[in-house]
């Protein structure tokens, strides 16, 4: 499972889908993600929609991560 608290602790903020996918070695699609924010991702330093949670499909994908 993706631990958003840990991600936030590591980067100071939440990160974008691409960075989250890389970090957890999983291919997250837009439909897997819940987006709440839009700001410069602290990991890739580009303006991104930020993933604040996962939908059911996203949770299933990351269940054993
Ligand atoms: Zn990023």
Helix content: 25-40%
Strand element count: 2
Strand order of the largest sheet: 1-2
Quaternary organization: single chain
How many discrete structural domains? 1
Global outline: globular
Average pLDDT, all residues: 97
Low-pLDDT segments = none
Bound molecules: zinc ion
Order of helices and strands: HHEEH
Reported for the largest beta sheet, the result is: 2 strands, antiparallel
Straight-line distance between termini? 5 Å
Question: Could you characterize what this model shows?
Answer:
By secondary structure, the protein is α+β, with helices and mostly antiparallel strands. It has one domain. The protein is 34% helix and 25% strand. It has 3 helices and 2 strands. It has a two-stranded antiparallel ribbon. A hairpin with a 6-residue loop joins strand 1 and strand 2. It is globular and about 25 Å long. The termini are close together. The mean pLDDT is 97.
How do the strands and helices of this protein lay out in sequence?
Layout: H1 4-11, H2 17-24, E1 33-40, E2 47-54, H3 56-61
Residues 15-16, 18-19, 41, 43-44, 48 line the site of zinc ion.
